[in-house]
Amino acid sequence: MDLRTRIMNGLKQAMKDKEADRLATLRLINAAIKDRDIAARADGEDDGVPDAEVLAILGKMVKQRQESARIYEEGGRLELAEKELGEVAIINDYLPKQLSDEEVQAAVNAAISDTGAESIRDMGKVMGALKSKYTGQVDFAKVGGIVKRHLS
What we know:
This protein folds into two domains: 3-92, Hypothetical Protein Yqey, Chain: A, domain1, CATH 1.10.1510.10; 101-151, Orthogonal Bundle (Arc Repressor Mutant, subunit A). 76% of the residues lie in helices and 0% in strands. It is built from seven helices and no strands.
């Protein structure tokens, strides 16, 4: 079952179960996906965005909510921080399992050897290989630093 179908089924189930918070979060996810579909149609793609891009949308939403929660906590607005973290938990239900630090190291090492990367100039190749395999499973901002250290 593709990711869009899982999200739509989750939305329907949240309606049936009268889970207001889950329903609101799934509607936000759906709206973000539809926005990206509309942008893709303007670029000539009629199929909509692929699952890899949906995963990227979800990852971005998680980062936004984590940052918002951090800001709310710093401002003493714990109820809003809890709401944001609740949304993160719901979004994470639709993301693949995150790789551990050891798995990330192994993936970086494998990507470097597979691409034959030798210097920092090859970082784009390595990151491209990682993104094609691990979208939604790792934080690429952190992975970028790891790759840079390996290639320096």
